[in-house]
Sequence to fold (522 residues):
Amino acid sequence: MSLLEIAHLTGGYGETDILNGIDLTVEQGEILTVAGTNGAGKSTLAKAVMGLLPRASGRIALDGTDILAEPVERRLALGIAYVPQVGNVFASLSVLENLQVVQGVRDAKARIAELLDAFPALSERRRARAGSLSGGERQQLAFARALMARPRLMILDEPTAALAPARVVESFERIRALPALGVSVLMVEQRARQALSVSDRGCILDGGKVAMLGAAAGLLADERAAALYLGRAGGA
Amino acid sequence: MFGALLVAGIVHGLIIGLAALAVTLVFGIARFPNAAAGDTMTAGAYAGLLAHQASGSLALAGGAAVAASGAVSLLGYLLVFRPLARRPVASLLVAAIGVAFVIRAVLGLIFGHQQQVFQVPLAWPIEFMGLRIPPMDITLATVAACALAAAFGVLHLTSIGRQMRAVADDPDLARVSGIRPLRVMIALWLLAGAAAGIAGLMLGVKTVVSPEMGWEGLLTAFAAAILGGIGSPAGAVLAGLLLGIAQEVSTPYVGFTYKIALAFVVMLAVLLVRPRGLFGRMEGVR
Fold:
């Protein structure tokens, strides 16, 4: 059974559908990249899985249980975490407070200690305001915040969008390490080639539908994918 | 003379600061200007007056003021503002003005419209570094300092306070961090009500208690909240102090009638130099 199963998913913010019947799965322990042109529905898909889309129909199942009608709080409790594209840390709270404020965490003190061990840069700046962190540190904090509740599935919406180019590679390395922590990943990303290079599978959306789906290596080698969606190797 | 006015200004500024704290907390988290904050103060002043008349104790009066204003504030949220959540800010502002009128009308019906005073015993001023300070001013300043310490303690040292600040910072991120909005809102309205209650009690002790007292002070509280940087609790308190001191110190030069206007001149002058206020981003409690 897939960890996440999406079937016939449609929906949007207003009356117009942005997602037009998406079928997709995320398997246990895999990283799945969702790529596509601007306006293809990538971030909308991420929001729909997290329960943040005002209108959605179809089926979203976690471990076989339909969660489409469940509110955000229930999805969090079931093990889904979400790192938004922008505003992914509480800028006015300290690093430590960003972790302390996450609710529904068993043995929160021990979990914070684990995460500060895993992200030493944060440990050194635990009393600093999150708004004063560098882009790379902010992203580490965003990941640590999302990992607080020991999720099984992490949804990353454009994780490298706000990073300096020099930080992008280490960011993808961080994402590559998540399955070893028991976390599967659904990653929406503009830097499709780099994202696919750390992913097991990839999916390309076009007009709110799945245009291509397959092994990441296969998509990277695919002439049509390169021509229409990914750009040539060496590009972004 | 200047020293005495300065002391009076500090006490007056603490009252404004507490009222502004109530305004800015609601603005930062619930994201609308709560025009009922002044009348919530009045409810606290009357509850304090009743408790003081019954017991003669200012401590009990303070407890009664906090309890009554907290309850009024929470009721306003549950009965009016919660059902209107997600409506435009203008709708919430008009609703808050309506709540303010209702509170004032109820207080007028119960207590009448004549002015009432706290019967506090007269005491000789305390001499300190050439200043003659009324003991009641020291008491009120101590009460205000304790109330502010408690409010900032809640905001910065407790889990619910962190959650309130997180919601103020980014409500969407707070939602995906598992923070329950209803709990945060209940805590917010209780805390804002308590701050308004202490402000109402202090204002009542310093001046007179009447159904209109809070409404008349609301504009100054709003000015302090804006001057401090909307959504900044520390900014609201410091701006309240600044306006209070400016009003009292300017009294010999501009007269009693114009001292309130002078406070707004100070506010405008600061905002011209620093449009976001003393501590400000434009949104969110920090």
